Amino acid sequence: MYSVGEVEGPADISSLLQQGMETGLAAAKGNQQPKFNRKPEENIEALPADIESGGDHHFICKCMDVTRKEACMSIDEGFDQVESLKRYTSLGMGPCQGKSCHEAVARLAALDTGLTESDAVPTTMRPPAFPVSFGLLSGRAHHLGPIRRTPMHHCHIDLGVKFLDAGAWKRPDSYMDPQQEALYVRKGVAMIDVSTLGKIELSGPDVIEFMHFMLPGKFAKLDVGRTRYAIMIGEDGILFEDGTISQIEKGKYYISTTTGNQDAIYTLFQWWLTTGDYDVQVKNLSAGISGVNITGPKVREFLSSIIDLDFSNEAFPYMHNRQATLEGVPLNLFRIGFTGELGYEIHFPSEFGESLWNYFMEKGEPFGLKPFGVETQRILRLEKGHLIPGADTDALSNPYEAGVGFAIKDDKEDFIGKAFLAEFKQREIENRLVPYKLQEGDAIPIDGVAVIADGKPVGRVTSSRMSPTLGYGIGMAWVPAGSSEAGNHFNIRSLDGTSVIATVLDHAAYDPEGQILKS
Hints:
Helices cover 25% and strands 24% of the residues. It is of the alpha+beta class. Among the domains are: 5-42, no CATH class; 428-511 and 515-519, Aminomethyltransferase beta-barrel domains (Elongation Factor Tu (Ef-tu), domain 3). The longest helix has 17 residues, at 13-29.
């Protein structure tokens, strides 16, 4: 790292220019930065403002636009000490933190009160008047914060992955063209690393009561071996999370959260446990448990060949979970369908992550098993019409507008956000999140562009991709409620001014009845 200028302390302009030239030459050659031994007399101080000759509108503090007149009025009102003058007028509270005006303020206070300048002691300068810390110099590069990697990280590198930064995580974005990866899922069998998902275990005598308070759904009838879709809302009734809840053993509930919210939800559970009389144990298993999702038409045939478990639809139906072992490694298997295809999410201890990934890839080769990444998953979930909280929703999205009101059971006595949900139900819905499709050949708009009506923006596209399975563009968008009925059309305007016409769907673009998913 090379540093020049006042970051190393103040100096005159000629010294700074010389330092910059010599340091730049050293950096270009890859040499160490030359040392500069400044003498004390080489350092200069910022000259104070000309207090004596300045008029009433002379700026004493240029950062905060405080004039001499305003400062003198404050002194006349009794704020005649440098510290009180600073607090009353904001002198020296700007970006320079007093570096350019502290002496001028002290001189003015002395002149206006009859004190000597030695008695009007300036306030202490604060950063950035002093040298910048190494933490700030580190910048926004890869070392800015901690980096989290899944146990399969180096397996992905060996496969030529392109990584995606998902918070602190390095997630596989794609290994090849995401469009091609999506077709591998739809026509064969493919695998994605889902180790970054949150895994939280709840147990204890009051676990049902606690879950009924924390979440808007009901779980008393969720039997062992069953899995259920669930959402979470804030106290304001706003949707911020979705995932699944499974009873994997009697009285033991396993919650799968999104990558970004795993720590927040664990903290939220802990916080509410301190406020209520719940006998519940909460464990954050996210770091200790890794997972993969193996999906596609050939997945049942593939998994049956390596795991001693009945994968038939009768023995292992959709939205159920099972336990098994593979080469002595304990597995939790969940039959869920975020990709819209027959699939199984398999969780296991993280220490076996790399070996199991390689095992699956080796044993899956005769079945054509391929890896796929997050970008491909986003294409597949759009084909199935699944939303992603935070991507398709924002801080104003309630569950009814977002189309997940079915996960709410508001006949419970109380739960977080219930009062606001009741208010939302009484209001007329103004906007809805809808799936849409484009015509073949239409340009694919980017995420975030506007939905236009009568020349004005009335909504926005939240997710937009080309569907390789269907051959046309698909996505999700917020539109006015009056335009949200299936078959309605709306206008999407791209950043270059071009427009395409989208058609609202009332179901998933792919497998709308869920026959493939549940087969």
